[in-house]
Amino acid sequence: MSVPSSELIYHPFKLEISTMQKSEWLKKASLVDDSWAIKVGSILHITSLFDPHHIFDQGKEMALSVSDEAIKKVVEEFMVWEPYETMGKKVINGELSDNEELYRLCENLWTGLNELLEDLGIDYRSNNVLKL
């Protein structure tokens, strides 16, 4: 039997009611992907109404126990495709039709992202070139 999920706003709160198998939820709590920051926030800030077996505490522990290496790996992957996708969407939507402006924005984006990642100690560059 499946219980449908429900979300509602009770100002100033957002309430979400949902069901999931414990093993599936704990797996989700430890998964590091490009939306990890959003997911982990929702797991860490859960307020349970009834949790006698401390399942939500287990989820918080799982979310906080992911390795720095797993997070760095996602950031490295994210650095390659996200900027291209964002700029591509702007070009397709006609927001960037001036080539010189597009080049300037891309250069500023890459420079800023590279400086940030260098400050964080994340090396996303690879010596392996993808051959198409």
Please mark out the parts with pLDDT under 50 across 5 or more consecutive residues, or reply none.
Answer: none
Main beta-sheet strand count, sense and barrel state: 2 strands, antiparallel
What is the string of helix and strand elements?
A: EEHHHHH
Proportion of strand residues: 5-15%
Overall SS class:
mainly alpha
Tell me the number of helical segments per DSSP (H or I, 4 or more residues long): 5
* Mean pLDDT over the full residue set: 84
Count the E strands. 2
Shape, principal axes of CA atoms: elongated
DSSP helix fraction: 55-70%
Q: In angstroms, what is the radius of gyration?
A: 20 Å
**Alpha carbon gap, first and last residue:** 47 Å
Please give the order of strands in the largest beta sheet.
1-2
Could you outline the blueprint of secondary structure elements for this entry?
Blueprint (H helix, E strand, L loop, with lengths): L5 E5 L2 E5 L4 H9 L5 H9 L10 H10 L3 H25 L6 H22 L12
Antiparallel strand pairs: 1-2
Helix pairs in contact: 1-3, 4-5
Pick out its properties.
132 residues; 5 helices; two-stranded antiparallel sheet; 57% helix; 8% strand; mainly alpha
Write a structural description:
The chain is mainly alpha-helical and 132 residues long. The protein contains five helices and two strands, in the order ββααααα. A hairpin with a 2-residue loop joins strand 1 (6-10) and strand 2 (13-17). Helix 1 packs parallel to helix 3 (55-64) and helix 4 runs antiparallel to helix 5. It is elongated. The model has no long low-confidence stretch (mean pLDDT 84).
